[in-house]
C-alpha cells in the first residue's frame, strides 16, 4: 500500500505543469498572439497591394449596340477592345507609399514580439501568484487547525471552570479570522488559476497541478544600456518613419502624373450607312500628362496633420524613455526589497517557531495565559506567510525585470 501511494505521488509530480511548459503553451495557444499574428500578415499583404501600383493596368471589353435612328439609317455594331496603361511618373507617391507600408509591416512584426513578451510576463505572474496563494492555503489551513485545537482545549477548560469566557471568545475570534483568511486564499488561488487558463487557452486543464519554481531559475544579470533598444521604442520609431514617408508621398501631388499606354479595337459587325468607309481594326498609342494646379489646399492640410503626428510621437518617445527608467528603478528596488524581506522573514520564522514552542511549554506549566498561546500561533502563521510571500515576490520582481529587458524566459 505504501509503495502504491508513493507511486501515485510521483505520477502526480510528473504531470505537474512547469513554468517553462506554461510559457510554451501560452506562446502556442494564446488568442491575443494569434490575433496579432494575423495583423502582421495583413500588414505584409498591404506591401503586395502597394507594389501593384508599379505594374501596368490591362483592361479588355466587349460591346454590342443596335438601334434605329430618326433619319432612317440603321445602326448595328459589336466590338472588342483592349487597353494597357502604365504610370511612368506620379511624383514618387507610389515609391514613398510603399516605403511607408513596409514601415507599418515591420511595426506589426515588432508588436507581435511585444505581445509575446507581454503574454510570457502575464503567464509568469499568474503562475507565481497561484503558487503563492497555494502556499498561503497550506499555511492558513495549518493555523486554522491549530486555532481549532486550541479552541477545543480551551472549551474543555471553560466547561470545567478553569478558563475565563473572554479567553475562550478571543480564541474563537482568531479561529474565525483564520477561517476567513483560508476562504480568501482559496478564492485568490482559484482566480489566479483561471487567469492562467485565460492566457494558456483551452489546452490547459484547470485541475492540472503546477510545479513549484526554484531559485536557480532567476536571472539577475542585466545590461542597463539595452533599455535604449527596447521594442516599444522601435515601434514608435518605425511608426514615425512611416509617417515621414507618408509626408513625402503626399507631396507627390505637387508634381504631374505621366501615363503611357496603347488601345486596340476590333469590330466584329458594323452595319451603318458609312460602314464602307470605316476600318475593322484600330490601334493607337497614347501619352497622358496631368497636373493638378489647385486642390483646395488638401495636400497642405494633410502635410500639417502628418507633421503634428510626428511631434506627438516624439513626445511619446520622450515619455516612454522616462517611464522605462522609472520602471527599471522600481523593478530593481522591488527585487532588492523582496530579497531583503525573504532573509528577514526566515529569521522571523525561526524565532516564531522557537517562541511557539516556549509558549506551549510554559502554558503547560501554568506560567502563561491562553492568550499568549493565541499570539504565538498568530505570529507563527504570519511568519510562515511572510516567508512564502517574500519568496514568490522575488520571482515576480525578477519577471518584471525580464520583461523590461525583453527576455522570453
Average pLDDT across residues?
A: 86
CATH superfamily of the largest domain: Outer membrane efflux proteins (OEP)
Tell me the Rg in angstroms. Answer: 38 Å
* Fraction of helical residues: 55-70%
Unreliable residue stretches: 4-13
CATH topology of the largest domain: Outer membrane efflux proteins (OEP)
Cα distance, first to last residue?
41 Å
- Report the total helices: 8
Query: Count of DSSP E strands?
Result: 4
What top-tier CATH class of the largest domain fits best?
Mainly Alpha
Q: Give me the CATH architecture of the largest domain, please.
A: Up-down Bundle
Strand count, sense and barrel status of the largest sheet are: 4 strands, antiparallel
The largest beta-sheet arranges its strands as 1-2-3-4
Indicate the structural class.
alpha+beta
Mass-distribution shape: elongated
**N-to-C order of helices and strands:** HHHEEHHHEEHH
Whole-number total of structural domains: 2
> Strand share of the residues?
5-15%
Short précis:
By secondary structure, the protein is of the alpha+beta class. The protein folds into 2 domains: 18-55 and 95-254 and 296-404, Outer membrane efflux proteins (OEP), CATH 1.20.1600; 56-89 and 257-290, Single Sheet (Outer membrane efflux proteins (OEP)), CATH 2.20.200.10.
